[in-house]
């Protein structure tokens, strides 16, 4: 039976992998061009899939030292992106795929947007990584 730490790291890996696959599906499958903030979120999320995956295989909870800074900054960037979508009057614009306040693919009646999904993924990865680290320290 896998340890609690390995289970938490595995869940964090799964969340990061789903986020990575989802972002690629939106851009490659739907042809949506990511905005500048979306690129920053991808840069922070993609390595988490590999880093957490290796840590899961090795049952290495100290990966939190690497994962938490990446996911923590991801929470900040995604929160800012969600804020721009909620308050487009803040005046911030992005380049690459368009304005960061535009909603390219609303889901669930507009409740879910790509930046909100990104925020949820970063919050989950942060919480699961922190829980894995705390769980290992209790042993």
From TrEMBL:
It is found in: Membrane. GO terms for molecular function: protein-disulfide reductase activity. It is a multi-pass membrane protein. Its main location: membrane. The chain crosses the membrane at residues 39-57, 64-83, 114-134. InterPro entries: DiS_bond_form_DsbB/BdbC, Disulphide_bond_form_BdbC, DsbB-like_sf. It holds the Pfam family DsbB. One of its GO terms (biological process) is protein folding. GO terms for cellular component: membrane. It comes from the Archaea. Keywords: Chaperone, Disulfide bond, Electron transport, Membrane, Oxidoreductase, Redox-active center, Transmembrane, Transmembrane helix, Transport. PANTHER family: DISULFIDE FORMATION PROTEIN-RELATED, SPBETA PROPHAGE-DERIVED DISULFIDE BOND FORMATION PROTEIN B. Belongs to the DsbB family. BdbC subfamily. This is Disulfide bond formation protein B.
């Amino acid at each position: 039976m896998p340890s609690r730490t390995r289970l938490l790291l595995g869940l964090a890996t799964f969340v990061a992998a789903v986020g990575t696959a989802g972002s690629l599906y939106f851009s490659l499958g739907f042809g949506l061009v990511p905005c500048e903030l979306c690129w920053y979120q991808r840069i922070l999320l993609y390595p988490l899939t590999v880093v957490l995956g290796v840590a899961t295989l090795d049952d290495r909870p100290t990966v939190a030292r690497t994962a938490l800074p990446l996911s923590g900054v991801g929470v900040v960037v995604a929160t800012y992106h969600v804020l721009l979508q909620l308050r487009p009057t803040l005046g911030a614009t992005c380049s690459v795929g368009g304005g960061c306040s535009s909603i390219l693919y609303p889901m669930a009646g507009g409740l879910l947007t790509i930046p909100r999904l990104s925020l949820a993924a970063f919050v989950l990865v942060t919480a699961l990584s922190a829980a894995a680290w705390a769980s290992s320290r209790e042993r």
